[in-house]
Amino acid sequence: MKKLFSFLLVFSLMFSLLNNIEVEAHSHFTDLDKVPWAEEEIYYLSDLNIINGYGNGKFGPKDNITRAQAALMLVKALYPGETATKDPGFNDLSEDNFYYDAIALAAEKGLVNGYPDGTFRHNAYITRAETAVMIDNAYNINRKRSTNGFKDLSNVPWALESILDLSSHKILNGYTDGTFRPKNNITRAEFSVVLAYTINPDFRPLDDLSVHFIDVGQGDSILLKSPSGKTILIDGGRKSAGQVVVDYLAQAGITSIDLMVATHPDADHIGGLIDVLEQVQVQKVLDSGKSHTTDTYYEYLSLIDQKDIPFETAVEGSILEFDDVLNIKVLNALNSSSDLNESSVVLKVSHGEIDFMLTGDASVDNEAEMIQKYDVEAEILKLGHHGSSTSTSQSFVNAVNPEVGILSYGNNSYGHPNSEVVNRMWDFGSTLYSTCDAGSIMVTTNGKNYNVDADPFTGNDSCGTDVNPEPEPEPIPVTGNLDITDLSLSDEYVTIKNMDTQDIPMGGWKLVSVEGNQTFYFPGDFVLKKGTTVKVVAGRGATHNPPSQLLWSNAYIWNNSGDAARLYDPQGKLIDALAK
Predict the structure, then answer these.
(1) Strands, DSSP E only, in 121-230?
(2) What pLDDT score does 147 carry?
(3) What is the distance between the alpha carbons of residues 433 and 443, in angstroms, rounded to a whole number?
(4) In a 3-state reduction of DSSP, which class is residue 293?
(5) 15 pLDDT tier (thresholds 50, 70, 90)
(6) What distance in Å separates the CA atoms of residue 17 and residue 55, rounded to the nearest whole number?
(7) Residue among 319, 274, 279 at smallest CA distance from 295
(8) Is the peptide bond before 205 cis (omega within 30 degrees of 0)?
């Protein structure tokens, strides 16, 4: 009896451990910082109770997924609450296996098959090709469009149709070198993304938008080619650059411009449009509405009139009805100012989650107005007025929060780009690209990610620009009497109070999650006033609201089963700690 009791106890503990492998639903997974590209999809499936984490609060995103885990995810997605009516007959799968019910139901529904030797091999990893077949069988994906396929599918003829079905919907995509790599194992994060893309098309990458910043010397010219093949040309540089723009369009295979935008009538923006109007079919023109007295401006208007091209004036706040895939909003247009630059047509172009802020020569006053009226956040910012000091204020940079800045200029006597503006962008953490340095620059995006096909601007170029990053001043290390007054593992925050008699500059201070082995570094310009508190927050939905609240991460930091917070000053001295 004692032996039987011991056996039952051991069996119970083993079963509990097995359950913990895949039963922790709706958890705050602590290891998704390694896969930020999959975090949203993983939590989406977790909220639907389709996927679970391990019993230690982790998801294991980079672990290869097994056939059993994939079967469990599929039956939870498609047949929640159902049970199999018969034994699947796999000779390596017993009824006491944690995954037995899921595998049996998946086999009964035709989602998975066994091997000729009668095994299922539930612990075997699945490949990208096997994933395609499994998802195609489960969801019956109909091919959306013809595809040229991939160059490495000859050794998986059994998966070819499924791979093409899924890739046509951008559910499971190939690599930039034209391969699919069908025999590569797929990770838990990758499989989760594929399943989320299948269930919810809103997650899928969109077709590519390409934005070309054409090198026209000292001027601006931007070409947009939408996912549906429509084209927008914004400005054309000086008149001497017109043939450069025409040739660029020809090399890109573009014979017609659906929408031509003249941001304002300065010669370095509309001059090159004259050659375009003469040699390329233009369907419609959107103008700033600002008039000018130059011969270039009259020639531009005359050509539009001669060719009977529909002509409209941009209206601030309007949405351009151009392409259903893109959202294009006018943030600035005709202005009563005598300065032509202040009437620049400013467009925010959004493709999925990626935004472009195309500013023409808009001034800092325009920027201030746009900040007050509109959401100006964008990943890619075309710096206003060729990087002049009249544009790209610190407040505008803060509001746009650009990851990439594009400088369009050539040899000039105006001091473009301004060194303070360049350093402002660098200090913010933006990567800069220069047409004078790199030539024409193309940014391609699928609505989730983007790629810039140029080398970053380092401060020196063929135009004689010599801008060096301003040296970072050495922070003066300051210690002080600070207390961790509260730590919430479930709500993901730490409260810190300045108990000192003086304000404490927090540059160099850090807060550590002991169990998670993660570190938060306080912003270098943050000062904790005497007698005040600051809350350091994390998790989905957490926001940055200084000086009362600082955002650590939108991932989950603290281990709910027990963790400790430690606060260190710039010299590495432990100032306070609190454990929960």
Answers:
(1) 209-213, 222-225
(2) 62
(3) 11
(4) coil
(5) very low
(6) 8
(7) 274
(8) no
Instruction: Specify the DSSP element, H or E, that contains 397.
Output: helix 394-400
Distance separating alpha carbons of residues 454 and 436, to the nearest angstrom: 12
Strand partners, 404: 380, 431
Largest CA distance in the chain: 105
Return d(Cα 6, Cα 416) in angstroms, integer.
81
Residues 328, 349 contacting (CB under 8 angstroms) = yes
Q: What is the pLDDT of residues 51-93, one digit of tens each?
A: 888 877 889 999 999 999 999 999 999 999 999 999 999 999 9
**Which one, of 62, 36, 324, lies nearest residue 187 by Cα?**
62
Enclosing H/E stretch for 131:
helix 128-139
pLDDT in tens, 257-310: 999 999 999 999 999 999 999 999 999 999 999 989 889 999 999 999 999 999
All domains of the chain, ordered by start, with CATH?
A: 19-203 (no CATH), 209-452 (3.60.15.10), 482-579 (2.60.40.1260)
Tokens (6 digits) for 387: 């990087």
How many other β-carbons are positioned within 10 Å of the β-carbon of residue 229?
10
Tokens representing 18?
Answer: 């097995």
The answer to whether 364 and 391 are in contact (CB under 8 A) is: yes
429 burial level (CB within 10 Å; 0-12, 13-18, 19+) = exposed
Which DSSP string corresponds to 312-372? EE--TT-B--S-TT-EEEEEE---SSS-GGGG--EEEEEETTEEEEE-TT--HHHHHHHHH
Rounded CA separation 39/386 (Å): 37
pLDDT at residue 10 is higher than 90:
no
Kindly report the pTM of this predicted structure.
Answer: 0.65
Q: Which residues contact 27 (CB under 8 A, 6 or more apart)?
A: 46, 52, 53, 57, 59
Structure tokens at 179: 């391969």
The residue type found at 102 is A
* Three-state secondary structure call for residue 421: helix
DSSP 15-40: HHHHHHHH-BTT---S-GGG-TTTHH
Q: d(Cα 92, Cα 85) in Å, to the nearest integer?
A: 19
List of residues 6+ apart from 19 with CB closer than 8 A: 55, 98
Q: Tell me the C-alpha distance between 539 and 556, whole Å.
A: 5
Q: Which residues contact 269 (CB under 8 A, 6 or more apart)?
A: 219, 220, 235, 236, 237, 262, 263, 360, 361
C-alpha angle 132-133-136 in degrees, rounded to nearest 5: 85
Statement: residue 362 has pLDDT above 80 = yes
Q: Is 122 exposed, middle or buried (0-12, 13-18, 19+ CB in 10 A)?
A: buried
- Other C-beta atoms closer than 10 Å to the C-beta of 287 total 24
Q: How far is residue 509's CA from residue 523's CA, in Å, rounded to a whole number?
A: 9
Q: Is 140 helix (H, G, I), strand (E, B) or coil?
A: coil
Other CB atoms within 10 Å distance of the CB of residue 306: 10
What CA–CA distance (Å, rounded) separates 127 from 152?
Answer: 14
